[in-house]
Amino acid sequence: MLSRLLPEYGFGDRPVSVLVKDAFIESIGETLPKALACDRVIDCKGNLLIPAFYNAHCHVAMTLFRGYGEDLPLKEWLETRIYPAEDRLNYERVLLGSKLGIAEMIRGGVVSFTDMYMFEDAVAEAVLETGVKANLSRSIVSFDESVQPKDDYRLKESIDLYNRYHGAGEGRILVDFALHAEYTNHAACCKYVAEEAKKRGLRMQIHLSETRKEHEECKARYGKTPAEFFRDTGVFDLPTTAAHCVWVEDGDLDILRDKQVFVAHNPVSNLKLGSGVMPLQKFLDRGISVALGTDGTASNNRLDLLREMQTAALLGKGIFCDPASLPANRLLKLATENGALSQGRTDCGRMEIGKRADLVLIDLNALHNLPVYDPYASLAYSADRNDVLLTMADGRILYENGEYTSIDEERLKYEFQNAVAHYFD
Fold first, then answer.
1. H or E element in which residue 112 lies
2. Is 290 exposed, middle or buried (0-12, 13-18, 19+ CB in 10 A)?
3. Phi/psi at 338 (5° precision)
């Protein structure tokens, strides 16, 4: 690949050759190694080559519910629209919904996503078929304290998912455990699930303080915040990704920092559901690792990491009346390296020799990107997912110039539309 890189890689505006061998980046330099026989050389025409995006919080199969249940607050949205619709889910529907969501993400430069849902074996098969990566978890809820956690079918499904798919696809699939939230689980279950995850060396996924109501009701129940609840039940003793974190308090920030919790910031979903705005700059100032997520398309409508990055940038500036807040050159890391690290993928997320070749080529010649004085600013404020010219995961091109290599787009659209048309029959 002959392309342009970001300033951080030290080549300025000079064209750079990036050599990919198998799943890894083998060399980066102004010239290719001598006497090299390549299967293919791609002239990137001076466009921008960047690390691919990682979606740190998603419910990918909720493409089935895009546009269904709009303009409602979270509790009403869940109870009157989403939960009843989810009662009609099955393996085949989740498989199709996942394939569509994965295709959308590939088109926008996303090569890996962190998923919390049900019928996750269907999501796993979609991941294996399409060539992307994912951290998959079966969402666990526990309302009945008389049911022993070890007997809960959701935990059994989580363990089965781990036994069948952890490490599948040459490590493209990693299985996490997931507790949906504090308000959907009791303490004994959280402690038990954390112990089971620790036995297997797994990561955890949770929703945390997404709404003021959720946050305040936890304090009324236990005399502690949701962050304190998960700390005290041992959940934060594991590598954890906590989604949303809109209503956390100063003491909670200390917990998240000290326990090295990854926070998945979902600005568009939180805005659309009227949940509030996570004060991103406060998290970064405390040294908390923040990644970006889309949430599901039922609450966001798009699986678009560029839009999340741009929304996060503008929110911080507007709310705190500080145009210097969240400078453009800090944002990309949230959508790339931090997302990869939140999934435990330490060999991903950066363009370096020896790292996995997860790459995206961005069209800098689109009218809305010209001129390019600062490529970080182009990504943060003007680029669009339609500017993605190429998406590569583990050295495999999944999308290039309007064409998928692992997905029959027309067939997928036909099958998905048919499934949605008969969803409530």
1. strand 110-117
2. buried
3. -65, -35
Specify whether the CB–CB gap between 119 and 94 falls below 8 A.
yes
Statement to judge: residues 63 and 211 lie in one domain: yes
Least confident range of 1-5, 137-141, 337-341? 1-5
Range of the domain at 362: 2-51+351-404
* Distance set, CA 349 to CA 276, 343, 407 (Å): 29, 11, 24
CA 410 from centre of chain: 25
In this structure, are 323 and 366 located in the same domain? no
Q: Cα–Cα distance between 33 and 49 in angstroms, integer?
A: 19
Which one-letter DSSP state was computed for residue 382?
Answer: I
Could you check whether the bond before residue 371 is cis, i.e. omega within 30 degrees of 0?
A: yes
Q: Which two tokens stand for residue 412?
A: 């997928």
The span from the CA of 45 to the CA of 123, in Å, is 36
**What is the predicted pLDDT for the residue at 74?**
83
| Cβ-based neighbour number of residue 152 at 10 Å | 18
- Any idea which residue has 């920030």 for tokens? 253
Question: Which CATH number does the domain housing residue 176 bear?
Answer: 3.20.20.140
Answer yes or no: are the C-beta atoms of 162 and 200 closer than 8 Å: yes
- Dihedral sign, CA of 417, 423, 424, 425? positive
In a shared domain, residues 291 and 363: no
Share of the chain above pLDDT 90, in %: 87
d(CA 21, CA 331): 29
Residue whose C-alpha is closest to residue 326's, from 311, 336, 340: 311
419 vs 64: CA distance, rounded Å: 9
Identify the pLDDT of residue 35: 59
Which H/E stretch holds residue 225? none
- 176 with 76, same domain? yes
Q: Which of 299, 325, 342 is the last residue of a domain?
A: 342
Give the global pTM.
0.96
Cβ-contact 56, 291 below 8 angstroms: yes
Pick from 121, 7, 12: nearest CA to 61: 121
Lowest mean pLDDT, pick from 37-41, 61-65, 192-196, 305-309: 37-41
The pLDDT value given to residue 73: 84
Residue by residue, what is the 3-state secondary structure of 30-99?
Answer: CCCCCCCCCCCCCEEEEEEEEECEEEEEECHHHHHHCCCCCCCCHHHHHHHHHHHHHCCCCHHHHHHHHH
Domain boundary among 318, 342, 366: 342
